Amino acid sequence: MRPPTKRPAPRGRFQRHTAIARPAEGGSPTVFLVLRRMRAPLIVLILIFAISVFGLTLIPGQDADGNPVRMGFFDAFYFMSYTATTIGYGEIPHPFTGAQRLWVTLTIYLTVIGWAYAIGSLLATLRDRAFREALALRRFSGTIKRMREPFLLVVGYGQTGQLLGHALDALGRRMVVVDRSPEHIDTLDIDPYYSDIPGLVADARNPHTLGVAGLEHPLCEGVVALTDNDEVNLVVAMTAALVRPGLPVIARTVSPAIEHRMRAFGSPTVVNPFDRYGDHLRLALHEPSAYLMLSWLVRGEGAEMPELGRPPATGRWVVCGYGRFGHKLTDDLRADGLEVTVIDPHPHPDAKPGFTIIEGDASEPSVLAEADLPGAVGFVAGTDNDATNLSLVAAARKANPSLFIGARQNRPANAPLFAAMEIDWLLVPSEMAAREIYARLSTPMLWRFLQEMPGLGDDWAADTLERMRAYCGAKLGALWKMTLSAKDAPAAQPWLISGVVVGDLLRSPRDRDQRLDAVPLMLMRDGETVLGPGDDVRLQVGDELLIVGRPYSRRALIDTVTNRVVAEYVLSGREVPAGWIWQRVTGKIPTEVEGTDSPVRSSDDP
Amino acid sequence: MSLEKVIFGFFVLLAATLNFGFFIGDISNAALHNEYELFAAVVVNLIATVLKFGDRTQIGAVHLATSLVADLQLIAATLTWVYATQISSAGMTPEATASVVSLSGGALLANLVSVALLVIETTTFQRR
Q: Do B46 and A28 make contact, defined as CB atoms within 8 angstroms?
């Protein structure tokens, strides 16, 4: 009987690991490049020396007594060495004859040319672009290999990248940067950073570039694609998904089509700043406090609380420009039931009730008059030209001074102009993308909080904001995640098992009647979240807390959950001595977990 | 036929033949070992070494290593010769001649390896 034929095991499509070959790596150190370039000059130098020395030994000379004598090889080599290097000790061992001087004159010129050629070639090689690039690439890949901390691979270091880079650097995160433009990489040296950020000038569309930049490094914890070219971002997201399946990828794009294509590879996080603008506008429309909290939290530690500008109003909105941004914004506004008038030079057939499209150039007064600005409440200048947007804002203000003005700023350099116009609602795509990615990367819980927070209503947001301001002041405190697991919070385990409430945990270790300057924003338990847990919420082992507060509160809390003596005082009020002897002498021993081998939750409720 | 290969082969072979010419003969008899031949052997060996610079292949690396060994041996022989003729009061004694020639004999061995490599390379890679 034949054994049943074995079917080949199905290949795990996304489990396999594709290695990126690195042709530039291995083997040839840069010294070989120098040697190869120096071949010709060195041979010329050797030949010149050999001919000169050989000639000197052949030409007969005279000693002091007039006897004919020939120069030995050693004397000839010695003489040529100091003559060729322009040191010149004179004629040895005897004064030269006319024939010898004739030959020496010739060799002096020959050797000087030989040396000049050799030294010139060496300097040219060292200053050569290809050589320096080879050296820089070598140094860069060495730095990456020596990375011993988790790092993010940031592709594209323009406006968005630099904003994000500074914010993450302040948090102590490590990064590796790849950008096509040398100016962007130079900012890594010029701008102040806490850590040393390796940067590479290369085209990220080439998978080898990402390989050299550490995509395959085991400590690479994520890839962020932020170039201003959607195509490049797509290629980066694709490369990361194929080479390191499962590695977190964040990619920026403004095109829904590219977004769709990105999602075909793994599950990258796609950030579309145009999309967010409308979402935020809607949030501000309904829940101004929630919007204020969102925009404060994504600014990072130490940020001033942003001014709550004029809230947008409900009514008819006029949107100039119906490109990708205009589409997104109009969809968002109409989803809110707002009436929208769009002005765009190109004809669009999709006019519906409550949505009119005026075909024409908005900068022409007659076209703008057609939009009936005095009867509108909001105006958004959303073309891709900054000069047009500014002039549209000015014209709209003239027509109706009470309009709520929104505008899109395309180029970073124009920021002062837009600031001078006092736009109510400014979209800077680079900033918006940087803030969102920061919120996703800094603390993963923060992003979840921001997603769920608007659901609790504006009153809750206003209340939480008030508490944040009361505890942390006008500047945003540190945001951190605290895990109450047996590993991260060993000292608090006995109380977590028997039950402790949030209010007790936040007592100060110095005086437990005082409360720490910290506000718990979210409690996460088994994937379920409780937003803004009150002081009476019970904590359990394994809970995760997202807390905002002053930095010393963070240190105090870490003390509470890791030091048994501090935990004893903070959580129960019982003071026990810190030393083992005194604990035994006084009989005050810190509370232990009952049944130490298996911390089973006791039925503690009376 | 490439000129580069011709020049390369020429110098490698010339280094070995000059070396051999200097080496052959009664080891302690200075009259049988011409100093001009030693000089030529040193120069040609140096040129052969420089020609081997910067070759990335494995066989290129061994080539360079053998040449460096030959250079080292020949320069040691030259220094012994300089010591005997210039510094030592005894001059070119049979002992000094023997040590110069035996050092060049070591270089000859390295040069023969070099030639062998050249032959192997030629027979293995016809199109390179």
A: no
- Nearest chain B alpha carbon to A33: B54
Domain count, chain A: 3
Show Cβ contacts of residue A204 under 8 Å, excluding neighbours closer than 6 positions: A155, A156, A178, A179, A180, A210, A225, A227, A232, A235, A236
Q: Is A425 domain-assigned?
A: no
Tokens of B117: 């490599």
* A84, pLDDT greater than 60: yes
- A482's tokens: 């605290």
Q: Containing domain of residue A215, as a range?
A: 132-271
Report the residue from A39, A49, A74 with minimal CB separation from B53: A39
Same domain, A218 and A256: yes
Residue A566 lies in a domain: yes
Q: In angstroms, rounded to a whole number, what is the distance separating the alpha carbons of residues A212 and A23?
A: 10
User: Per-residue pLDDT for A322 more than 70?
Assistant: yes
Q: Is B36 on the interface with A (CB under 8 A)?
A: yes
Q: Give dist(CA A162, CA A407) in Å, integer.
A: 23
CATH of the domain at A177: 3.40.50.720
Interface confidence (ipTM) of the complex = 0.77
pLDDT tens profile B26-64: 999 989 999 899 999 999 999 999 988 877 778 888 999
Whether A225 is covered by a domain: the verdict is: yes
Q: Which chain B positions have a beta carbon within 8 Å of A47's beta carbon?
A: 43, 47
Between B33 and A86, residue with greater pLDDT: B33
**Mean pLDDT calculated for residue range B68-89:** 92
Same domain, A539 and A570: yes
pLDDT at A258 over 60: yes
**Cβ–Cβ of B56/A32 closer than 8 Å?**
yes
Which CATH number does the domain housing residue A55 bear?
A: 1.10.287.70
pLDDT tens digit sequence for A233-252: 999 999 999 988 888 899 98
Residues of B in contact with A74 (CB under 8 A): 82, 85-86
Per-residue pLDDT at A468 exceeds 80: yes
Tokens of B9: 């082969």
The label of the residue with tokens 């057609």 reads: A370
| DSSP H or E segment with residue A68 | strand A68-70
Question: Nearest 5°: phi and psi at A519?
Answer: -120, 120
- Nearest CA to A426 among A438, A414, A441? A414
Q: How far is CA A107 from CA A97, A114, A157, A492, in A?
A: 15, 10, 57, 88
